[in-house]
Amino acid sequence: MYSRGYKAAVAIPPLAWVMAFLLIPYALLLCYSFWMVNEGQIVRHWNLANYRELVHQPLYVAVLFRSMRIAAMVTALTLILGYPLAYYLSIIGHPRKDLLYQLVIIPLWVSYLVRAYAWKTILGTAGVLNTLLQYLHVTSQPMGFLLYSPFAVVVTLTHIYTPFAFLPIYASLEHIPRNLIEASHDLGASRFKTFWRVVFPLSLPGVFAGGTFAFVLSLGDFLAPLLVGGPSGIMISNIVQNQFGVADNRPLGAAISLCMLVLIVGILSATERLEKRWGRV
Amino acid sequence: MRSNLQRGGGWLTVHAVLLYAFLYLPIAVLILYSFNSEGVGGFPPHDLTLSWYRTLGGDDAIWSSVLNSLLVALASVSLALGFGMPAALALDRATFPGKTLFRRLVLLPLILPGIITGLSLLMLFATAGMKLSLMTIMLGHGTALISVATTEIFAGLQTFDRRQEEASLDLGANYWQTFWRITLPNLRLPMIGAALLIFTLSMDEIAVSFFLIGRDNTLPLEIWSRLRRGITPEINAISTIIFVFSLIMILLWYRLRLRMESKEIARELISAV
């Protein structure tokens, strides 16, 4: 029913935007990654030196692995925290479930930066937690490992991404036909067996979606590590950001961010495939 | 069956209480210490005061950054809706070569860490010789947030009855009139929802802005530059004000939606009679 003109009119402006502000910038990122820098000037001399440095310099590989470890821990924690709450609200049901659902979302309205900063004021040696513990005579000295450590990064990122993991899980639990659960009970399955054989498999698309969000976003985070991570909590994006700042080596930064982009797109298509496989039960 | 399901809810209740505590602890600390005379941290807080709010009132740099952020947010909403709306219509209705790639690219910034969107755009602006300014941040936010507008409006289109448009076209209206009189009014709710979401996300955005900033700071970047110099409860104060403001926005949105939904229900009831 829609004419060619109509289709062209709705398709062309967004296509042009995507071309100009997504496709071309990614292509430029790719070009830059094969260039080099000489005395602060970009030299358009095509070579593989940046990628070679990435592989040979142990620092980059180590930081990449640390970032993936931190992201994996954050993902596991957000799922462990988010799933039971989603199950509680959706499957068991709570009289105030809409309100409780909103209460998970409201923290998202507090600036990301401000929440990371709040954790800094909580975890510091003169921070709220340490002074509280000393006030209560639980500890006599401030615990230094709380702030400027990978621990602090994991706590902060878990706090930020738990709602992101919760939302898709909750949505997928809400979509489960309730008569399937009833049927499982009527046929004599225990509560655990019903969960394991009926509810959990049907909620997997939500788990994959939430887990992907948490993993990918925390993998690329650079502000939380800067605020609460300290030297031992540096992540891969900090190295990228450094190449665009102090180190002033944009081509190398472009090469690292391109590797991140490829890694992330790989993860996205893998989880999409998993979602499709588990989504139809 | 209900009793069977609800047994064992005890552990889950405990878990829920602890999780809410975890989610709200930083916010509570943030608000509480905005009234603390002796800086951030240190338990118990004492000598509660409003002096940080007074300092904030006279802080011109913060308020000009708030103004910048509002400008950027308004521009982002217009850009994201202006391009996200046709993008959603195109995904819903048109077939063209590369549509799958187009869908993936439009939605990619939604899930991509901001640093990649920010850097790739920085490469673009550097290559094009564009000076970094609030303008480049607007383009960055627009690019990152078109995905939000597209998903919200696309979802709205899925429940939209195309026969209304068909009727309008059959009765002699052209596409343009049909769009303004039928399509747009029907998508009012997802559009308002998307606009509010984009506005808030833009106000809070820092990863993309971080790389595209010129001379003028947005609020998150102004806060960021102060955090590096040392922390004062003034930051808690401005954050508290913005939190309260956001809460009011959420409440307004719910009331609006409730009213609209009840109106729509009423209309359906009338047509059913």
Q: Topology of this protein?
A:
The complex is a heterodimer of chains A (281) and B (273).
Chain A: H1 4-33, E1 36-38, E2 41-43, H2 49-56, H3 58-93, H4 97-105, H5 112-123, H6 128-135, H7 150-174, H8 178-186, H9 191-219, H10 223-229, H11 236-243, H12 250-279
Antiparallel strand pairs in A: 1-2
Chain B: H1 2-6, H2 9-33, H3 51-57, H4 60-93, H5 99-111, H6 114-128, H7 134-158, H8 162-170, H9 175-186, H10 188-204, H11 207-212, H12 219-229, H13 233-272
Helix pairs in contact in B: 3-13, 4-7, 4-10, 4-12, 5-7, 6-7, 7-10, 8-9, 10-13
Summarize the structure in words.
The complex is a heterodimer of chains A (281) and B (273). Helices cover 75% and strands 2% of the residues of chain A. Chain A contains 12 helices and 2 strands. With 281 residues, chain A is mainly α. The longest helix of chain A has 36 residues, at 58-93. The mean pLDDT of chain A is 89. In chain A, α7 crosses α9 (191-219). Chain B has a domain at 58-242: MetI-like (MetI-like fold), CATH 1.10.3720. Chain B starts with a helix and ends with a helix.
Rg value of chain A: 23 Å
The total of beta strands of chain A comes to: 2
Binned, the helix content of chain A reads: over 70%
Mean of pLDDT of chain B: 86
**Termini gap of chain A:** 35 Å
Notable traits:
heterodimer; A: mainly alpha; 12 helices; 75% helix; B: mainly alpha; MetI-like fold; 13 helices
What is shown here, in short?
The complex is a heterodimer of chains A (281) and B (273). Chain A is mostly helical.
